[in-house]
């Protein structure tokens, strides 16, 4: 099976630096199921192509399977594994290009952080659902997609097309993002299980999906297919994605298979309910200027920008990549001069004072505080409530008690969470902060209410006392 990646970035041979594979060498890498060869069919200043060829050893692959494997039969020896891209190619690519997938390149870090012209070609790819599924998966990521069906037999047109396509992707994409997208989406398109899947598969999905899976319109389909439709793993993954701000299906209840008609009335995703609740709270407060602290890729900022009542909007995040995603989401480069003056994006850390945080009617900390190490939480409080001192602060955070309703969830909802509060713990924290910095606080729940465990998300609305006493 074969995968090629081409760039016309000048100088194109910088692709070798990004992949950490020298264009003048042919390199081999042993895998448990075969051998990977990496080489460069062309390497000029104007155009450079790297090829990854996987030679599968069917006997070695068959011997690694258990007797309970789905294809324990002659199919282990007579199959398409040596010729068609699959999860095996995704695994091999992820291993061989592991450093490139991390986005690290000491000698060309600025280039590694940038979107460059890329062309990716996979000559033979199983595609369950046909070319239309390939378009649904790759186009939202900014790719131009060509998925050409491969006939069953060129000599017999009446037999129709096979389940394979020739896939060609072109676009301006960061190389690390492109490799991580392939790592997830190749097995999703094939939807065949070639290796044992354990709980760490959820962590792999979260890592490879960072920065793009959260906002993908087919996140639910991708998650279910990638995890082999294993209900427990899928629910854990969807619960964790919900905490990243994804517009995905509710994480507690499994959705119907994509081939089954969905009911007309779908449950509103928790993240949507959270955005709506915070948005309404800001309107009720009469805020005209709002800063979203820890804005991430800008989903909530998009809602703020579309609301004329907010005349001044700012988004801040410690991650420059998230801010780049936010700028693309808001189409900052296409804004009119008047609109651009209304919106500001900047990089900053919430544990250090920054004069740009000040001067707003309201500040939003949506699913942010739980990502801060407890010893540094007081620094955040001092920066936001003491130094910036907006007229109001809206905080949302997970309700740890509700976690008991997420089937298969062990520990916290996301690996980056430093803590998750119960309702009593949020009450103690918010009362202390309000008393210390001269605010009053009201607490509410967001999402489906459980009579015993409360709501999945809890919200605290702080208003400055001198404002409320006017």
From TrEMBL:
Residues 1-242 form the Hen1 N-terminal domain. It catalyses: small RNA 3'-end nucleotide + S-adenosyl-L-methionine = small RNA 3'-end 2'-O-methylnucleotide + S-adenosyl-L-homocysteine + H(+). This is Small RNA 2'-O-methyltransferase. Residues 291-393 form the Methyltransferase type domain. Signal peptide: none annotated. Coiled coil: none annotated. Belongs to the methyltransferase superfamily. HEN1 family. The keyword Methyltransferase applies. Its EC number is 2.1.1.386. Its cofactor is Mg(2+). InterPro entries: 3'-RNA_MeTfrase_Hen1_bac, Hen1, Hen1_N, Hen1_N_sf, Methyltransf_12, SAM-dependent_MTases_sf. Keywords: Magnesium, Metal-binding, Methyltransferase, RNA-binding, RNA-mediated gene silencing, S-adenosyl-L-methionine, Transferase. The keyword Repressor does not apply. Gene3D superfamilies: Hen1, N-terminal domain, Vaccinia Virus protein VP39.
């Amino acid at each position: 099976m074969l995968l090629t990646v081409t760039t016309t970035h000048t100088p194109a041979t910088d692709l070798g630096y990004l992949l950490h594979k020298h264009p003048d060498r042919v390199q081999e890498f042993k895998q448990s199921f075969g051998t990977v060869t990496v080489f460069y069919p062309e390497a000029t200043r104007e155009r450079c192509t790297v090829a990854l060829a996987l030679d599968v050893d069917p006997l070695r692959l068959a011997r690694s399977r258990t007797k309970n494997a789905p294809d324990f039969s002659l199919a282990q020896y007579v199959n398409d594994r040596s010729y068609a891209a699959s999860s095996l190619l995704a695994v091999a690519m992820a291993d061989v290009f592991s450093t490139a997938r991390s986005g690290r390149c000491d000698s060309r870090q600025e280039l590694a952080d940038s979107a460059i012209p890329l062309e990716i070609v996979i000559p033979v790819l199983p595609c369950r659902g046909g070319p239309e599924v390939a378009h649904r998966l790759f186009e939202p990521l900014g790719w131009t997609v060509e998925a050409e069906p491969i006939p069953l037999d060129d000599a017999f047109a009446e037999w129709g097309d096979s389940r394979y396509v020739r896939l060609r992707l072109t676009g301006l994409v960061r190389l690390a993002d492109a490799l991580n997208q392939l790592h997830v989406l190749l097995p999703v398109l094939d939807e065949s299980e070639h290796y044992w899947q354990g709980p760490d598969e959820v962590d792999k999905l979260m890592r490879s999906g960072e920065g793009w899976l959260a906002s993908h319109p087919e996140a639910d389909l991708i998650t279910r297919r990638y995890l082999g439709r294993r209900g427990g793993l899928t629910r854990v993954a969807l619960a964790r994605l919900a905490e990243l701000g994804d517009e995905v299906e509710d994480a507690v209840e499994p959705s119907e298979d994509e081939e089954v008609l969905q009911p007309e009335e779908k449950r509103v995703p928790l993240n949507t309910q959270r955005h709506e609740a915070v948005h309404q709270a800001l309107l009720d407060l009469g805020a005209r200027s709002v800063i979203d602290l820890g804005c991430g890729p800008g989903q909530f900022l998009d809602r703020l920008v579309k609301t004329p009542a907010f005349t001044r909007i700012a988004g801040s995040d410690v991650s420059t990549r998230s801010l780049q995603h936010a700028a693309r989401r808001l189409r900052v480069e296409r804004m009119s001069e008047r609109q651009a003056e209304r919106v500001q994006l900047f990089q900053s850390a919430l544990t250090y004072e920054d004069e740009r945080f000040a001067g707003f009617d309201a500040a939003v900390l949506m699913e942010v505080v739980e990502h801060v190490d407890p010893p540094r939480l007081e620094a955040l409080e001092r920066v936001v409530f003491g130094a910036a001192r907006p007229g109001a602060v809206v905080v949302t955070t997970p309700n740890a008690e509700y976690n008991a309703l997420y089937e298969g969830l062990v520990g916290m909802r996301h690996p980056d969470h430093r803590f998750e509060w119960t309702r009593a713990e949020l009450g103690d924290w918010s009362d202390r902060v309000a008393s210390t910095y001269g605010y009053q606080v009201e607490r509410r729940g967001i999402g489906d209410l459980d009579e015993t465990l409360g709501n999945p998300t809890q919200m605290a609305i702080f208003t400055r006392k001198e404002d409320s006493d006017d």
